Every structure is written in structure tokens, then in C-alpha cells.
């Protein structure tokens, strides 16, 4: 079982048409045809959207994406038009809402990996490849790869896992020229971000980008380089050969899998509400990620 314990109802705002409720974000269209992305405080773990929210999480993700977009714009244009609150929107949307160009999205989850873990590790252990790319012997969970690799995936429905696909399959789906642009841009953006994060004591193990077209130009879309779209590991506790502590979700995962939660992640029942202490520690981790990466105090 997976998905929402209870799917949230869209907020009604005059002039906005609700398009989609994702695990974390809600999408609307405004009267000018622009996309309005609202990042909620919802959190997912073990394929579930948890019944308890993490205060400030949506704002942290939104402000972090903006910060990164700014640092990447010489490599690729991004989709954000404004971070001003649309007229009539609830005050609670402030800081978590971005008005974006509505793009023709390219249906590929563009993943870059500099380290081996997750679905990459699973494939590697079976075939010594990731997305069909051959890798050296002897790598373990958390190993740094000889060089970053582009490992595209297809998007799955809520509760399903994205599926890794080969570069050749990606080229068949979107065309050879587009596939080459996606790979080149994904790796360039990843490398820039990895270096920035490394300077701040954070390993950017892997990350996912989405791109779209606007008048023939490739544009970086969605959220970027947030703890929800990336694996960030504290560099000082990195130790290949075991699962690395997740920067943001570790307290939640540890608690959910402990006897204290009374929850069986392989069972049929949804996860329980989180205790206040776990919520507060997780909130502090998201804020710490923001502060360490940007070097600014969370306001
Ligand atoms: P998940 O919770 O698994 O991420 P999701 O991807 O369906 O689910 P969100 O990530 O909340 O949900 O929704 C963002 C959606 O908006 C994605 O489908 C993404 O491809 C799309 N999107 C992002 N930026 C743009 C844009 N500029 N124009 C059009 N669509 C966009
Ligand atoms: Mg998404």
C-alpha cells in the first residue's frame, strides 16, 4: 500500500484553476495561462504521504529552488516568472508559491548520479550497470562514481516508483538531439551544484531535474536541488558500505521503522501521525539544509 492517507482538497482561489495535487505540490493555472506551483508542508516517506505536516517545509523547498535557479541561470534558463502571491490567494501561500511559465514538458525524469545508492545500487548489484551504463567492479552503497552519470527515468503515478530507462530508450522517446541536450545539461547542472554543495560540507549524491520547451528553448522546470528531489548527505559522516544518513528524512524514517511507531511499513495500514519531537527535529533539518547551502539565516 502507498499514496495518500487522505488526499487534500484543492484550495479555491478566484481566477485560479486547479490542475493537479502531487505528493507535495499543488498546481493551478492562472487566467494568463501561467502555472502556479504551491509547495505544501506535506512529507512523504516509504512511498506514503504522511498524515503529519512539517511546518515551513514548503517554504524551505521553494526558497531553496529559487536560490539554485539563480546560481544556474548562466547554464540554463528557468521557468520562474514571479514569487509574488497571486491576487486572492491565501496568506499561507506566501513564500511557498511560484508563478511559472507553462512549458511543454519533456516526459523524462533527468537524474544525475555522482554516487551509487538507491535504484542505481540495486541495478548495479545485479548487472554491474546503472541504466545500462557499465560501472567498475567493487563499488558499494554510497561509493563515489568515477564520474557523474545521466540515468533517466520515466515518471510514475503517485505510489508507483519511477522506472529507470537506458539512454538509447530515452533517445527513442524524445529524439536523439533532445536526449543529448538533456544529458549534457543535466550533467553540467549537477556538476555545478555538487561543487557548491561540497564547499558547504554537503554531498549531493544524486538529483532529479525536469525540463520543458518554451518557444524552442530548453528551460529548467519544476523544483531544483531540494531535499525532496535530491539526496544530500552530510560529508563528515559519509562512509561507503552502508546506507548514508539522509539529511532530511532520517528522523522520520528511523521513528517509523522503530517499535515506538507501532507501524509496519510492509503492512496494509497507513503510517501514523508523527510525534511533535520528530516533527521539530525534521523541520530543523530542512532549515539546516537551507542555511548550510545558501549561507543565509532562515527568516
Ligand atoms: P510527485 O509528488 O510524485 O512529484 P507529481 O510530479 O505528479 O508527483 P508535483 O511534483 O507536485 O507532482 O507536480 C509538479 C508537476 O508539474 C509535474 O508533473 C511537473 O512535470 C510539472 N511541471 C513543473 N514545472 C512545469 C512547468 N513550468 N510547466 C508545466 N508543467 C510543469
Ligand atoms: Mg514531481
SSE blueprint:
Layout: E1 3-4, E2 17-21, E3 25-29, E4 35-39, E5 44-45, E6 48-49, H1 57-72, E7 80-82, E8 97-100, E9 104-105, E10 110-115, H2 118-127, E11 129-130, E12 133-134, E13 144-150, E14 153-154, E15 163-164, H3 167-174, H4 176-199, E16 202-209, E17 211-214, E18 217-220, E19 230-234, H5 250-256, H6 276-294
Parallel strand pairs: 1-6
Antiparallel strand pairs: 2-3, 3-4, 4-8, 5-6, 7-8, 9-17, 10-13, 10-16, 11-12, 14-15, 16-19, 17-18
The chain binds adenosine-5'-triphosphate (ATP) and magnesium ion.
Residues 20, 22-25, 27, 35, 79, 100-103, 105, 158, 210, 212, 221-222 line the site of adenosine-5'-triphosphate.
What gyration radius follows from the Cα positions, in whole Å? 19 Å
Instruction: Outline the biggest β-sheet.
Output: 5 strands, antiparallel
The side-by-side strand order for the widest beta sheet comes to: 2-3-4-8-7
Low-pLDDT segments: none
- Structural category is alpha+beta
What is the percent of helical residues? 25-40%
Strand content: 15-25%
Per DSSP E runs of 2 or more residues, the count of β-strands stands at: 19
Name the shape in a single word.
globular
What number is the mean pLDDT?
95
Return the string of H and E elements: EEEEEEHEEEEHEEEEEHHEEEEHH
Helices, by number, come to: 6
Distance between the termini: 38 Å
Protein name: Phosphoribosylaminoimidazole-succinocarboxamide synthase
GO cellular component, one term: cytoplasm
Catalytic activity: 5-amino-1-(5-phospho-D-ribosyl)imidazole-4-carboxylate + L-aspartate + ATP = (2S)-2-[5-amino-1-(5-phospho-beta-D-ribosyl)imidazole-4-carboxamido]succinate + ADP + phosphate + 2 H(+)
EC number: 6.3.2.6
Amino acid at each position: 500500500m502507498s499514496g495518500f492517507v487522505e488526499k487534500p482538497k484543492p484550495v479555491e482561489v478566484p481566477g485560479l484553476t486547479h490542475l493537479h495535487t502531487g505528493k507535495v505540490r499543488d498546481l493551478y493555472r492562472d487566467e494568463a495561462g501561467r502555472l502556479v506551483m504551491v509547495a505544501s508542508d506535506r512529507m512523504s516517506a516509504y512511498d506514503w504521504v504522511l498524515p503529519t505536516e512539517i511546518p515551513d517545509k514548503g517554504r524551505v523547498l521553494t526558497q531553496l529552488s529559487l536560490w539554485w535557479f539563480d546560481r544556474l541561470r548562466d547554464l540554463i534558463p528557468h521557468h520562474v516568472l514571479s514569487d509574488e502571491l497571486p491576487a486572492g490567494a491565501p496568506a499561507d501561500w506566501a513564500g511557498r508559491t511560484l508563478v511559472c511559465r507553462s512549458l511543454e514538458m519533456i516526459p523524462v525524469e533527468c537524474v544525475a548520479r555522482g554516487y551509487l545508492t538507491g535504484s542505481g545500487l540495486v541495478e548495479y548489484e545485479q548487472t554491474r550497470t546503472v541504466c545500462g551504463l557499465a560501472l567498475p567492479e567493487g563499488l558499494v552503497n554510497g561509493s563515489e562514481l568515477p564520474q557523474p552519470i545521466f540515468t533517466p527515468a520515466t515518471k510514475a503515478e503517485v505510489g508507483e516508483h519511477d522506472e529507470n530507462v537506458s539512454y538509447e530508450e530515452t533517445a527513442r522517446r524524445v529524439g536523439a538531439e533532445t536526449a543529448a541536450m538533456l544529458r549534457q545539461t543535466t550533467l553540467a547542472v549537477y556538476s555545478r551544484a555538487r561543487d557548491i554543495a561540497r564547499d558547504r560540507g554537503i554531498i549531493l549524491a544524486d538529483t532529479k531535474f525536469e525540463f520543458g520547451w518554451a518557444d524552442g528553448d530548453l528551460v529548467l522546470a519544476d523544483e531544483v536541488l531540494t531535499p525532496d528531489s535530491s539526496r544530500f548527505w552530510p560529508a563528515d559522516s559519509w562512509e561507503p558500505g552502508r546506507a548514508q544518513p539522509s539529511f532530511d528524512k532520517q528522523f522520520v524514517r528511523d521513528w517509523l521503522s522503530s517499535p515506538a511507531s507501532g507501524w509496519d511499513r510492509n503492512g496494509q495500514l497507513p503510517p501514523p501521525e508523527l510525534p511533535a519531537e520528530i516533527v521539530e527535529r525534521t523541520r530543523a533539518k530542512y532549515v539546516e539544509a537551507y542555511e548550510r547551502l545558501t549561507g543565509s539565516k532562515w527568516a
